[in-house]
Amino acid sequence: MAAEHDAISDGVTCIRNADWIIAWDGAAGSHVYLRGGDVAWRGDRLLTVGGRHEGAVATEIDGTARLVMPGLINIHCHPTQTPIFRGMVEEFGNPRLFYSSRHVFRQSFVQDEAAQHVSARYGLAEMLACGTTSIVDLSHAYPGWLDLLAESGLRAWAGAMFRSARWHTDTGQDILLDWAPDLGAAAFEEAREVMDAAEAHGCGRLTGLVTPAQINTCTPELLRAAAELARKTGRTLHTHAAQSYAEFNAIAREQDRTPVEYMAALGFLGPRTIIGHAVFTDEHPWLLWPRRADLRLLADSGTSVAHCPTVFARDGTMMHHLGAYMDAGVTIAMGTDTHPQNLWQEMQLAETIARLAAGPRHSCSSARLFHACTIGAAKVLGRDDIGRLAPGAKADLVMADLDEPNMRPLRDPLRSLIYSSVGRAVRDVWVDGVQRVAAGRVLSIDMAAAARDLQAAQDRTAAATPDMDRVAPLSLPVSGGT
Ligand SMILES: [Zn+2]
User: Fold this and answer.
1) Which of 335, 346, 359, 398 is 20 to 30 A off residue 377, Cα-Cα?
2) Of the given ranges (94-108, 162-176, 447-461), which has the lowest mean pLDDT?
3) List of long-range contacts for 258-263, beta carbons under 8 Å, 24+ apart
4) From ligand 1's centre to the CA of 139, what distance in Å?
């Protein structure tokens, strides 16, 4: 595997006189706006953030009508799975799709390994293009995974998922499990090898992540072993838990405790643990649970939550409510989980849903959500050098075009990026000081070619899916029939 450090320039790159900068104020513990100034870096490290950069500059970039900000961190995504689902899964719950539902679809439309690879290639490019510089990729290990992550130019945590049971459902109301603990142990071993290989990869941007897939598909022994490995290796621990009404009820029925209480009892919670998605905690009014302990358990242990509102909203569910988690002191990070893999959309929806759920008590703001997509995520990944623009931090940064029509009139660039441009103003992206997106075009992956390959993979998988017109019907009938 070729080292890619040769792509990092020795000279200083300087964005001169950027109109706006989102800089990190370490003393205040918050991002702040700077009006006018330079952002300069040498190699993979930032030298100057704001003010005038003095000294020799090898590459100068005009910052007129530009916002410079830290790259976003996607704490929870499944690029091998979700891009290929475009146009098929967004409307479950629509009466027209009554026969088809998420569980029927997922059991019918089955991608092969080649399609997963094509999906991932497109998905990584999609994330870079909207200003994401770091991702937590939750995938079942596949050949070529680490090389593809390296080729993308992203900074990535490879979370090879493992579990002791396959889950399925026949009604969508209950989760049925086929247990195979030996397979879980074997997958855990394979995941350990992937984590070691990620950290030994020549690109220097990959890290392992300990990822039991879901708390209800892993034996307690496997969950304990995963937590122990994370503690011993200093790696972050990530799982899906408290993510569905059915899962909450199954654990409550068996154990008379909530999924979060179960994880606490296993020794699973802690400052390097992320829970995707902690939607169905005992805070949720739909559960009619008699106690209120989950948010305190999460906050006191320093556990983070991977909040991904889009995928839940599409199923008609939501966290209730994000502001209460934040006010309780729970660290929030954000991910996309599904497509489109656009954290700007997630931020917009997160605040909108929090307002709908909590009314005037919602406690959310653009500042808090941007903090979640940068500092909150960096914290649980154990990094104080990403998700911020400060001298000495990694040169993982994004430049947005303030003349992009959706950004005008310009009063507050962060708010407009979230609510009006939804990331369309992102033009240039650097990771480790290396430019990966220029003038809106992803340099490391040919996105047009990736889209063509993804189309072919979707067509091929659809052709192999029985009863496809009923599993994933079109939104409008085709005139004259198909
Ligand atoms: Zn997920």
Assistant:
1) 359
2) 94-108
3) 258/282, 258/289, 258/291, 258/293, 258/294, 259/215, 259/216, 260/293, 260/294, 260/297, 260/298, 261/293, 261/294, 261/297, 262/215, 263/215, 263/223
4) 9
R_g over Cα of the chain: 22
Give per-residue pLDDT as tens, 5-46: 445 567 999 999 999 999 999 999 999 999 999 999 999 999
346-386 pLDDT tens trace: 999 999 999 999 998 899 999 999 999 999 999 999 999 99
Compute, in angstroms, the gap from residue 239 CA to the centroid of ligand 1: 8
CATH number of 5-70+389-442: 2.30.40.10
pTM of the model: 0.95
Structure-token pair, residue 253: 């029925």
Distance 78 CA to ligand 1 centre (A): 7
Domain boundaries, the chain: 5-70+389-442, 72-380
The domain defined by 72-380 carries CATH number 3.30.1330.40: no
- The encoded tokens of residue 436 equal 């990966």
Task: Region of 257 please: left (phi>0), alpha (psi -120 to 50) or beta.
Answer: beta
- From the CA of 180, how far away is ligand 1's center (Å)? 21
* Helix, coil or strand: residue 332: strand
Query: Do residues 62 and 123 make contact, with C-beta atoms less than 8 angstroms apart?
Result: no
Using the mean position of ligand 1's atoms as its centre, give its distance from the Cα of residue 416 in Å: 28
Return the residue matching tokens 């009554």: 98
Q: From ligand 1's centre to the CA of 255, what distance in Å?
A: 24
pLDDT digits (tens, 9 = 90+) for 93-124: 665 554 557 777 878 899 999 999 999 999 99
Residue by residue, DSSP assigns 292-309 as --HHHHHHHHT-EEEE-H
Ligand 1 mean position, distance from CA 243 (Å)? 9
Tokens at 439, concatenated: 């003038």
Please tell me the distance between residue 147's alpha carbon and the centre of ligand 1 in angstroms: 22
Note whether 105 and 81 are within 8 A (CB).
Answer: no
